[in-house]
């Protein structure tokens, strides 16, 4: 037995030892058990004394980590608190029937947040052969987070989520007669403020009409064809890696009506005829993806449309660009000269997927249009199948014009730089050294090396960057740990 438990254990009425903890009031003992952070372990405290035997059933917070689903159901059924403020369940390969059973029990008493995550191993039963988890109506829940590992989910056909403020649906396969549009209606979710849907199937069309939503994130919905958002209170919208046909983005339709929007991340192809953003006059932060220097006419045309989106919002304060290069040879120069200046931008986040191409010229072109930037976040994004990466082909014009290596650039407001994914290529090193030269008032630089870098290479780069740094610059080095 654990020494601490041995010291606390007393027999019932035999006078052996002194049980000081059991003399504490119930509310204080319950607070102690909440700190145990695991419902099963809290229940095991009954070995301490009979005084503790039913205390776990009074806990306002319940956490289940890899507990059998019949055990979760039994624990919830035996629980005596009418208002559970937090329920967390981390499970493995659950059957939809077993999860449905205990979720319905939980819905009776939950008055706060519920977080459910299903971790499924590769090679388990195909999702299509399984049934769907029957989600009950959580009348008193304030936050629902479901990450179901591609299991089916059937939404409740009726009921009002009267207090629900946040809803996250990740890794779901939507089934049943009730659609997401019905669930999100003001009649059923009258208080909803935050919505996040990611890596979900069964969502070809999404219509969101809400008077209360202020944040919406739609991520990795690759089968999405139509999106409609009417949300007068919405201030943040992120749509990333969505829609079915990326080569023909005009076939994907989106209509956004959010007049109070201040932050927009549109990390997809953009076509102004099919993507309608409405009257957005308060935008302060914009994130988009550009596909640089592609010889295909359609892709080149899409780049032009992306530039029109940038030209529409020149008064923003924060700019987030993901710049992607093609794998093959680049023959048509991207019209970077049409990129507008951003006189009010103070925060710039630049992600680049290079596939062996020289991206210095494009990054230089962005920075020279954001000379008031105070914070720069630069991310060298690893390419897919990095081990098969080939050098930039002969004749590629990706480094044109090459004057970024020598031309002066006054970034006299730039005080902080963070660089992620540094692998130590010649191009990456050359760009960092130029940043030391351009950022005359730099106070802090943080460099996070890619996990693949060797210890000797990392040491070499540390010494090199420190030799170019100035006394007033605080240098911070670390290595990404997945």
Automatic annotation (TrEMBL):
Extract the InterPro entries matched here.
Answer: F-box-like_dom_sf, FBL15-like, LRR_dom_sf
- Show the coiled coil region(s): none
The protein's name: F-box domain-containing protein
């Amino acid at each position: 037995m654990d020494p601490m438990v041995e010291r606390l254990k007393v027999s019932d009425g035999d006078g052996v030892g002194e049980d000081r903890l059991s003399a504490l009031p119930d509310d204080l003992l319950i607070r102690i058990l909440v700190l145990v952070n695991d419902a099963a372990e809290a229940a095991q405290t009954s070995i301490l004394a009979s005084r503790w035997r039913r205390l776990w059933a009074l806990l306002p917070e319940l956490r289940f980590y890899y507990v059998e689903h019949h055990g979760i159901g039994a624990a919830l059924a035996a629980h005596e608190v009418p208002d559970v403020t937090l329920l967390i369940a981390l499970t493995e390969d659950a059957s939809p029937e077993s999860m449905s059973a205990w979720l319905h029990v939980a819905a009776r008493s939950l008055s706060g947040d519920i977080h459910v995550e299903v971790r499924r191993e590769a090679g388990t039963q195909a999702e299509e052969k399984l049934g769907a988890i029957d989600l009950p109506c959580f009348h008193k829940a304030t936050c629902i987070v479901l990450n179901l590992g591609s299991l089916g989910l059937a939404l409740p056909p009726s009921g009002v989520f009267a207090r629900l403020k946040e809803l996250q649906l990740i890794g779901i396969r939507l089934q049943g007669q009730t659609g997401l549009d019905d669930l999100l209606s003001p009649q059923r979710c009258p208080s909803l403020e935050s919505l996040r849907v990611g890596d979900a199937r069964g969502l070809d069309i999404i219509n969101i009409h809400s008077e209360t939503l202020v944040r919406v994130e739609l991520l990795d919905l690759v089968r999405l064809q139509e999106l409609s958002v009417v949300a007068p209170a919405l201030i943040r919208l992120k749509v990333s890696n969505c829609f079915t046909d990326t080569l023909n983005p005009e076939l994907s339709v989106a209509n956004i009506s959010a007049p109070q929007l201040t932050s927009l991340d549109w990390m997809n192809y953009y076509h102004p005829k099919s993507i309608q953003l409405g009257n957005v006059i308060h935008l302060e932060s914009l994130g988009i993806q550009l596909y640089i220097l592609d010889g295909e006419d359609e892709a080149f045309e899409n780049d032009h449309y992306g530039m029109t989106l940038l030209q529409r919002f020149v008064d923003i304060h924060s700019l987030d660009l993901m710049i992607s290069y093609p794998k093959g040879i680049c023959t048509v120069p991207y019209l970077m000269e049409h990129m507008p200046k951003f006189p009010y931008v103070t925060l710039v986040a630049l992600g680049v997927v290079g596939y062996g191409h020289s991206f210095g010229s494009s990054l230089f072109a962005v920075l020279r249009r954001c000379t008031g930037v105070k914070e720069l976040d630069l991310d060298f994004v690893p390419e897919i199948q990095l081990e098969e990466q080939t050098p930039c082909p002969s004749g590629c014009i990706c480094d044109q014009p090459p004057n970024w290596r020598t031309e002066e650039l006054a970034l006299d407001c730039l005080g902080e730089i963070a660089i992620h994914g540094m692998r130590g290529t010649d191009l990456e090193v050359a760009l960092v050294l130029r940043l030391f030269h351009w950022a005359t008032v730099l106070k802090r630089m943080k460099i996070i090396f890619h996990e693949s870098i060797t210890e000797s290479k990392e040491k070499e780069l540390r010494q090199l960057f420190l030799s170019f740094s100035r006394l007033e610059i605080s240098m911070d080095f670390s290595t990404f740990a997945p």
